[in-house]
Amino acid sequence: MGVTVASSSGGGSTASTPQQQLQQLQQASGQGGGGFGSPQGCITSNDESAVPSSIAPVSSGTLVGGVICSTPAATAGLVGGDVITAINGQTVTAPSTLTTTLQKFHPGNTISVSYVDTSGQKHTTSLTLTQGPLK
Length: 135
Hints:
Layout: E1 3-4, E2 7-8, E3 11-12, H1 18-29, E4 62-63, E5 66-67, H2 72-76, E6 83-87, E7 90-91, H3 95-102, E8 110-116, E9 122-128
Antiparallel strand pairs: 1-5, 2-3, 4-6, 6-7, 6-8, 8-9
């Protein structure tokens, strides 16, 4: 898909709110409370630390820390600070549920992504998954 999200030592974070996920991203990047650059830009790798300077005003979903350049998420218009709320109509409540949901799909599948942007606008877009980087 091409987004970075908060994670815990066991994989995807189970933080229940985007605000808690933001705190995890800030701690992981060594930032106390400030944002990282502009949420509009993309990052060049999954290893880059991305902390959005503002986030969508919602209480549930998966906070997008950053969007990797030239990925389906970048092409679809997602940016850091957006909050993914559903995949193919299935509610996404935390990074761990996003990971679990995406495991059902494979490169070449087209999925529907519902998200809220930093201004509070709701969006639904389709994107075609590609092969991710090797870990």
